[in-house]
Each structure stands twice: as C-alpha cells, then as structure tokens.
Design goal:
Blueprint lengths: L2 H26 L1 H6 L3 H6 L1 H13 L8 E9 L5 E10 L2 E8 L3 E6 L4 E7 L5 E7 L1 H16 L6 E7 L3 E7 L5 E3 L3
Length: 183
C-alpha cells in the first residue's frame, strides 16, 4: 500500500469518527428534542442550520434556567402568521432571534424595507438578492409575541444573527436591535 492511500484512509476514518460525535451531540441536544429535525436535515438546510448554530452558541444558558423555542408561528390580524426562528426565555428577558444564514456582502439600512445580499458570480459579476429588512421582521415578531403573551412591558430583546459567511458592506442600524455576525 502506498503512503498516500494510508493517509487518505486515515483521513476518512477520522472524518467518520468526527461525524459520529457530531451526530451524537446533535441527537442529545434540546434543539433535536424540540424540533424533531434529523441531523442531516439540519446539515443540508441553511435555515435550520442557522437556527441550530444559534442554539449551539447559547445552549450553555440552559444551565442558568433558559428555555428555547424554535419555529414559533404567531397569528396576525390579517389571518396570516409570522414565524419566529428562535426564542430564548431566560430570567434576564425574552430573546427573539431572526436567523439569516447568508453568505456574501450585505447592504441594508434600518429605515429601508429591503436589504441586499450580493454574491460574487462568475467573472466578477454579482448576483444580487433582495430580502425583507430583518430589523422590521423581528419587530413584527416581537409585536405579536407581546400581544399573544399580554406583555406590553418587560424585557424582550431583538437579536438578528447573520452567519460568519457574510460581510457587512454598508449596514446602518439606528435602534437598539442587535446584529451578530459570528454564529
């Protein structure tokens, strides 16, 4: 056997061991228990993957009494629903998370309804996608959560989480909303 083949085989074995640990950790998580999503569903769905990364960043708060809810649908006046990606209930407040597991450059202003994601295409061309302002989106989530819970006072925090695969090029926020890049 050649040394290259042995190294290749060793890498595959190490990858399998690592993957088995990841699957085992995932299957033991509260995220799995709450959502019932399989590891592979989360691994290959960007939205679910972003939510799970939020949970992985915050699960240590469970030791301090935090509880998590995922994919919560709340009724609105127009008989439609609004979906909250993740909620963390903690003695310090309620944290409402909007997950944006995006890559590329992000452009946006809190006062504008639409933001832009720009991905570098072939040859230096850019593929641009518009998405609804996540600050406004989370404001709507909090509005209907307050209404459903009857909480008009109290600490409810808006947290917008972007993946570390993106880069803010021109993002302007005026309110107390929180934006995190590293999840």
């Amino acid at each position: 056997m050649s040394i290259v083949f042995i190294i290749f085989l060793a890498c595959i074995i190490l990858y399998c061991i690592h993957s088995a640990r990841e699957v085992d950790n995932y299957n033991k998580s509260q995220y799995r228990k709450i959502t019932k999503n399989s590891f592979w569903d989360v691994e290959f769905d960007k939205g679910k993957n972003g939510e799970y990364k939020i949970y992985k960043s915050l699960f240590h708060y469970e030791m301090d009494g935090a509880s998590f809810l995922f994919n919560c649908y709340l009724p609105m006046e127009n008989k439609e629903t609004t979906e909250i990606d993740a909620i963390m209930i903690h003695h310090s407040g309620i944290y409402v998370f909007e997950s944006k597991n995006y890559g590329g450059w992000i452009f946006g202003n809190e006062r504008n309804a639409w933001w832009t994601q720009s991905l570098l295409g072939e040859g230096y061309s850019a593929q641009k996608e518009r998405f609804y302002n996540p600050v406004w989106q989370n404001r709507t989530h909090i509005k209907y959560l307050r209404k459903k819970l009857g909480l008009f006072d109290g600490k409810i925090y808006s947290v917008i989480v972007f993946s570390d695969r993106c880069e803010f090029k021109d993002v302007t926020i005026f309110s107390d909303s929180t934006i995190s890049i590293s999840c």
